[in-house]
Fold this protein.
Amino acid sequence: MILKGNQRGGAKNLALHLLKEENEHIEVHDLRGFAASDLVGALNETYAVSKGTKCTKFLYSLSFNPPPSETVSIAEFEAAIERAEKQLGLSCQPRAIVFHEKEGRRHAHAVWSRIDIEEMKAIQMSFDHSKLKTLSRELFLEHGWKMPRGLVNSEERDPKNFTYAEWQQAKRIDKGPKEIKTAIQDAWAISDSKAAFTHALEERGYTLARGDRRGFVAVDVHGEVYSIPKKTNVRTNQVRERLGDEKDLPSVTEAKHNIAKSMLPTLLRFKEDVNAKEQQQKSSLLSERDQLTARLGEERQAFLNMQAEQQRQEALIRQSRFRPGVKGIWDRIRGEHKRIQQLNEQEAKQALERDQRTKGQFIANQLAQRRLIQERASMLKNHFHEQKQDLRSDISQFKEMQQSNLDARREEFKRIRKDGGKQEICHNRGPTQEH
């Protein structure tokens, strides 16, 4: 069933909208967690509670719309609502359920309070549309309803149309049985003929083929084979009724050959993309390195100039301690000159040690900045090396898939020639005459 949800305020307006007489029959089926016994009072309670928070969209309203031709029981509606509130993180929140009937169709509305009373804050509704779409697809598949195209899983696509990043992501995901089954079920749910099913499978990266036992199978881009009846939960004779005879389909070996043949240009394109991106990032990093080197050089010279000026000023201060003329002579007689000289020597030594430490720390900081660029360069090199190595492995894999079909064809050709030669010999000999 189609699920449409949104966060909203306006408790009274929503309640009045749900109770509109434009429907042929309205039933307030359930009020959970409210003190009020009517819909308007219940939703107004949520509004009153929300005043203790800063939340303005304190309600979450969700509609449940099954296909027009299908009859859904109250228990099935309730089960779907329970699953939805669990997915949305609204379990145990105050909730109202209203059923509408119009023109022979029944649909449901569920409204939850988003305010967590214990925490006095609104429950975060992250990725709610994505979660509802996933649940909607599950409900269509479980009930065997024909799925609208808008619910088809857009993540399953033909790898030949991938970018390199998408190809890498698809490989990392390591799809499990559920994802594979869902993709094939999606293709089956939106198809009504062999041509449509073939196209739908190809959009998801699968090829329709003839199995070794004359059954219908799907072959993925890595050469794995999946039984169509098993993945769609449909009997073989029902599959054949929709798809017709499988004799004109390629064998699994031929399908693998065709997949490899079509994927190799894509992988070569990925290789070119990786090389181009590597050169671009290398060039950018070299430019950044040159700019950093120039900046660090300017900063180093400015620091050294500043330090030299500081040393000059401190030397002048120390020198000014010696008094000139008669006073200076008197300082020498009474030993003051020697004391100042020793003090100046001590301060000069301390200043030199201080300047050496400061200079060492300054240079260390600059080297750390320079190392960051070098580390990035090393990481970049390793990153692209791994990507190229991975691509070489992929290209080798598809070449082997392609070669296996050629080898099989050669063996078949040899067998045919051998059998044909035997038949020709038997034909030339003719019937044996008895003497």
The CA atoms of residues 75 and 417 lie 66 Å apart.
